Amino acid sequence: MQSVLIAASLFLLLAACTVGCQERSDPENTVSANAKRQMIEPAQPLPASGRMEPGEPAAPFVLTERSGAAFDSASLRGKVWLGSVFFANCPGPCFRENQAIAEILGLISEPDFIAVSLTCDPENDTPDVLRRYADRFEADPTRWKFLTGSMEIIKTVANTTLLLPAEVGIHSERGVVFDREGRLRGSYHLLQPDRVSLLVKLIRDVLAEPAPDAAANPVDRLPDSGIAPTSGEPAR
Hints:
The protein is α/β, with parallel strands linked by helices. Helices cover 35% and strands 20% of the residues. The chain has six helices and ten strands, in the order ααβββαβαβαββββαβ. Helix 3 (93-107) links the parallel strand 3 and strand 4.
């Protein structure tokens, strides 16, 4: 009988230790592990072919902004911009990711700096959905673009320009900085305060650089977003 009690005690102690380790490994402990796997996956290595390299100008693209107007990346010429990927129905990290972007935009008020956020769930994230989502952050439409469109184009832009993974409901939580010539300058994790501080410093450093010559040779465009804009004029 005594051996049974000892065995039972050891089992309970082991179970308690296991639970404790699980809680420590997930300090936020706010979303189930299964839900986290569904909404965020670690950044996976991407194929080298077709990807831009740091310092190389980003390929142009056309998607649809939350206003319903076409957004042509040519409008980013001469601006420093912060790219990211998210989706509106994400139950946790995406909201915090976009809170960080809102804070960065509050810290850096220069009109030549804007944020560009691509949804990785375009089937559900229509312009109307993105408009309501952006309102939660009081996002200035002139300084923060929320883009939807064809998943094929979104994935291409994310993978080859932002160098971030993007599948339906799967993305990275990094913010990627581009200079006025569309060259990738660096990226940092948006959910880590120390990384956000480095991101802010990088943006300010890039903003302080001289503006490039406005006359640049155009390059071929990617296909349109696949969503018909409600306005004939590109969003600026």
